[in-house]
């Protein structure tokens, strides 16, 4: 096997970090708040939260959680790039599509 035929070693990006998915039922607000309060400013992780809500119910979850969070809480819209030390909240009546570190929404 020649040098050109050898498999090149994989180089991992320095921008890799864990993404944690967390779900709760409609009554899970207090659990979310308790969890969010415990997340440090520099965990090095991103968090994606989904709460089961009625499809027509507008959620104030991002605003409520931002009051107790040490890191930014963002409601997901299309083409949101995931960053460490951020919390992302899926809006009601949407499905999340995550591809190569970018979040997008699709109708439910």
Structure at a glance:
The chain has 108 residues and is an alpha/beta fold.
Protein model, in words:
- The chain is built from 2 helices and 7 strands.
- It is of the alpha/beta class and 108 residues long.
- It has a single domain, classed as Rossmann fold, CATH 3.40.50.180.
- The strands form 2 sheets. A 4-stranded parallel β-sheet has the order 1-2-5-3. A 3-stranded antiparallel β-sheet has the order 4-7-6, with no helix packed on it.
- The chain is globular and about 55 Å long.
- It starts with 18 loop residues before the first strand and ends with a strand.
Please, what is the average pLDDT?
Answer: 89
Overall body shape = globular
Structural class: alpha/beta
Q: How many structural domains are formed by the residues? A: 1
Work out the strand percent. Answer: 25-35%
Instruction: Give me the strand/helix succession.
Output: EHEHEEEEE
CATH T-level fold name: Rossmann fold
* Beta strands, count: 7
Percent helix, as a range, is 10-25%
Radius of gyration: 17 Å
CATH superfamily: Methylesterase CheB, C-terminal domain
Which CATH architecture would you pick? 3-Layer(aba) Sandwich
The neighbouring-strand order within the major sheet is 1-2-5-3
Q: How many separate helices?
A: 2
């Amino acid at each position: 096997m020649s040098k050109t035929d050898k498999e090149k070693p994989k180089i991992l990006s320095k921008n890799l970090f864990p993404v944690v998915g967390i779900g709760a039922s409609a009554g899970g607000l207090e659990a979310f708040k308790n969890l969010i309060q415990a997340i440090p400013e520099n965990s090095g992780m991103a968090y994606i939260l989904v709460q089961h809500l009625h499809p027509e119910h507008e959620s104030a979850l991002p605003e409520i959680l931002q009051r107790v969070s040490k890191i930014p809480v963002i409601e997901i819209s299309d083409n949101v790039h995931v960053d460490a030390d951020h919390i992302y909240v899926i809006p009601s009546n949407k499905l999340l599509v995550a591809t190569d570190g970018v979040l997008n929404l699709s109708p439910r």
